[in-house]
Amino acid sequence: MEEKQSVEVQNKKKNLWFYPLGTVGRDMIYVLFTNFVYLYVLYTRDLTNAQLVAITAIMVAARVFDAINDPLMGNIIERTRSNFGKFKPWLVIGLISTCVVVYVTFNTTLQGWPFIWVFGIVYFLYSITYTMNDIAYWGMIPALSKDNNSRNQFTSRATLFAGIGNVAASVAIPLFTTGAYALGGNAQTAYGRIALIICILAPAFSLFTIFGVKENRDDMAKPATKVSLKKIVKTIGGNKQLLVMCVCFLIQEIGNNIAVGGVGANYIYFEFGYEGGLYSTFTTIGMAVTALLMLFYPMISRKINRKPLLKIMMVVAVIGYIIQFASGLLMPTGDTVKFWVFTVGFMLANFGQYGLYLVMMISIINTVEYNELIFGTRDEGIITSMRPFLTKLATSLVVVITTVTYIICRVTDYTNEIQDLEQLANEGAISAEEKSAQIDQVIASVGHTQNVGLLIALTLIPCAFMLISWFIYHKFYKLDEDEYKRICDELELKKTKDVVEE
């Protein structure tokens, strides 16, 4: 027994490094495709409103497709039986195919409707390929440990390293695609090179998880459950606490992703200047503070229960949004002090929002044992597939909000002019210096009304979504720390009785 416990401790220590390291490159791909593909389209393509709506429709349709694709993938993972376990084969297949799709997306020179058609194809392919990898990756957490504190450690450590990949991509992509430091002197060339670099880094980081992690494979000895839509519906529909968390998580993720979905970048460019370094600074400071939360969450969760912690995080986020909105509305355009005050507000808002995200992610994972108590099966793959599915659905709805904002604020009137200048620079018709000077003139012509519209979408709307999510969680989620422990004790007692009877 002591020898077994010693092995488990050693595996846990190893897994606490090799499991989270595997997500650094994955999240760089996720940031590139989810947060910057819309900006890539805006600043490298001359778009009509009809084409803008078509791109939005493609993104939304692809995410609706994921309504079946994500849980189905979770079910497929559940019944996978191989010498490498049920998760790792899909980690490999999903990541390699995703890299191919992403590289093609950012290295096409098509324009107009031909580009829209190709974009539709690759966007749907990305929905399939990234799902394979993402569900397999996060689905491993319940197989790494059944202990609540250990799960907090794995989840917070994985989100910490995901945050490292997220921040690295969020800093590098705008810095080296926009303004003076754009690779190749224009956005089209820069995005293509960035995509190539990230598609090399992602598989390299994944090797840590594939070859270094040892997950629990006890359930591999059991017969594989049948893949069926009925099984998926029964698991999700019958688990009422999972349903509550699905609603909470979806609403929270919509608000949480609006800033990085394109609205934030365009507000910074229009308000303070078309320089990727400004947006990199904005996102770096805004996201870096969440590393503290990721690092210390296991310790915090032992001292403060989830519901009180959510209230604290919500208050911090509301203060951040108030600072952002007030500074954006009252301070002069382009002012340096305004930029730093606005960025500090984003830092506080993002800190609070990320606290909500962590708590809700743990709350989804903890419905696995609730499901086992109700149905007698854990269905880890199906349950954990809801997190990436809801994140993707949320980002698609963010695209709708973003597109409506762009149309109301006439954003494409200005981005099309900037795209024309980027294209001239790509063709060598003007120099990088000439391009920059003419873009400054375009930015100077942006009206106050347009900036206020972007500001509202960036602050008030996310705050409203966050408050609604918190209210639903506080009112309807019942699996607090005490109830979760009771369920685990009851399951352990049942297993002990089954062993005695045998």
- The DSSP helix count reads 23
The backbone outline, from C-alpha atoms, is: globular
Order of helices and strands: HHHHHHHHHHHHHHHHHHHHHHH
Count of β-strands: 0
Percentage beta strand = under 5%
What do the pLDDT scores average to?
Answer: 85
Structure description:
- By secondary structure, the protein is mainly alpha-helical.
- Helix 11 (240-257) packs parallel to helix 19 (386-408).
- The protein has helices at 2-21, 24-35, 37-44, 49-78, 88-105, 112-139, 141-144, 148-177, 187-212, 229-238, 240-257, 263-272, 276-288, 290-303, 306-330, 336-365, 367-375, 380-384, 386-408, 411-426, 432-444, 448-476, 481-501.
- The model has no long low-confidence stretch (mean pLDDT 85).
- The longest helix has 30 residues, at 49-78.
What's the arrangement of secondary structure elements?
Elements (H helix, E strand, L loop, with lengths): L1 H20 L2 H12 L1 H8 L4 H30 L9 H18 L6 H28 L1 H4 L3 H30 L9 H26 L16 H10 L1 H18 L5 H10 L3 H13 L1 H14 L2 H25 L5 H30 L1 H9 L4 H5 L1 H23 L2 H16 L5 H13 L3 H29 L4 H21 L1
Helix pairs in contact: 1-8, 1-9, 2-8, 2-9, 4-6, 4-19, 5-6, 5-9, 8-9, 8-13, 8-14, 11-16, 11-19, 11-22, 12-13, 12-22, 13-16, 14-16, 15-16, 15-22, 17-23, 19-22, 20-21
